[in-house]
Amino acid sequence: MNKFEPTILAFCCNYCAYAAADIAGVSRMQYPTNVRIVRLPCSGKVDITYILRGFESGADGVIVCACLKGGCHFVEGNLFAENRIKLTKDILEAIGIGGERLDMYFISSAMAPKFVEVVKEVTEKLRKLGPALPKKIQLTKQDPEANKRTFLYNMIKNLALRRPENVITVPEGLEEFGKIEFNPSKCIGCKKCEEICPEKAIDSIRELDLSTILKTSMDQTDGRSTKRQRLYETLTKIARKSPSKPISIPEGFEGFYKMQYDPKKCVFCEKCRDVCLEKTINSVKELDLYAITA
Fold this sequence. Notes:
Elements: E1 8-13, H1 17-26, E2 35-40, H2 48-56, E3 61-66, H3 77-94, E4 102-106, H4 112-129, H5 148-159, E5 168-169, E6 179-182, H6 192-196, E7 202-205, E8 207-208, H7 210-215, H8 227-238, E9 247-248, E10 258-261, H9 271-275, E11 281-284, E12 286-287, H10 289-292
Parallel strand pairs: 1-2, 1-3, 3-4
Antiparallel strand pairs: 5-12, 6-11, 7-10, 8-9
């Protein structure tokens, strides 16, 4: 039986890590031929979709090689990349591929021996782990009508070997990921959140979800109590049982809506939160992969 040889995809920044790899080659330093190098102007250019596309294309492991901390030619590009790598490792772990198949290394242009050592170590580790995927899969196609975030989530779903169970905490400093939460007991149905959302991730449904409203904390907004809150507080006090289903709102009766949020479309711009005068919407630094891969 043929011995398994892993394929490694290496994203290397142009100024340091790629230069180290180049010096290693020119100096005839011996290292496994399993690695495929992609040169980037900066490690900060590494997008999560690049890494996942690598796994879709047959890579068994991915490494990102950046400048030393404090030595990035684009100031903080390597630090931005580090945060993305942390999140991507958690995603890979959640979907069953394994976070250990992705690593980041900080290598200067003078550290050719270090680059050789990294390739050898990663190759040996992946030999023990085996193939990343049990079989070859088709590449995720990018819908020209969909945004980049939807493309990313479709890619995660395509790669998933299991359904994620828990939410993932987004690392500090990574601003473009998160989710929004909605407190229906504060909502006055102005629909400003729906109107301002550039990705159409929010829709207003003509329903009154009393079951959720009666269970929701009735915190006051800015120290005041709105007419809507007083209505819900009264309903909470007089309710003899918990409503079993939402109530349909008649046409022409404005002001009562249920917000329907699609996390697959959300790019976490937080415009909906900022425009809401009643502080109904809150942003949370979490990624709900269970809902995203549904």
